[in-house]
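Show me any protein, fold above all:
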Amino acid sequence: MTTSISQKNIARFIVFAVVVAIAMSISFLVQAHDAPDLSAPVSAAAEVVELAAPVPVPMTDVADGLASWYGGTFHGRRTASGQRYDMDAFTAAHRTLPFGTLLRVRNVETGKVALVEITDRGPFIRRRVVDLSRAAARFLGVSVSPVEVEALTKEAFEDLVASNPDGSVVLDADMRPHSVPDNAVTVIERETSLKDAVTSLRDGQYLRVELTERGIYTYERVRIRPVPVRPLIAQK
């Protein structure tokens, strides 16, 4: 009797084990069918993100030559543009370029660079191409010295802003203009003058330049951080 019961139990156990094995096999097959194929290529919907960075803006080359400066005798007098001459501001006189043009002036002998705004006419001495304010000349180390000159006219500046309404115009430490998305700009400090803006610029910073409705430039020291721009759809 004992032997008979043991054989029945064994038989039942074998049947139970077979049933469990069959059920597990079916479950594994279903899971394998539903699982994603990891070896398949990346979906066409995957996004590749580009990072925005300042894009250089060309300036107009101006005839190179000698830079001179003018100071105390003219301080406070009306300039050809109608503004009062301030020898402590970063301004300049040029014979032909429009008033409001921003000039990038580089001292050839020292490599030092400044940005000045044209507010007056001159110089009227042969081989001299620009007359700097006293402050700008001192910053550059100019007496009567050879310089390289590039220009960004107010009209060109306005066209640049109009063509990129979601962007800002910024100047790097070498006083070269760039265009950058507004959302990449973090303001450090608003400057009261072009002189303060240029002389206070530090490594890794840019100057954001804006033009008010009254035609007056404003300057802010800013940092530029990389930000995502238009997402691209990966090709199959």
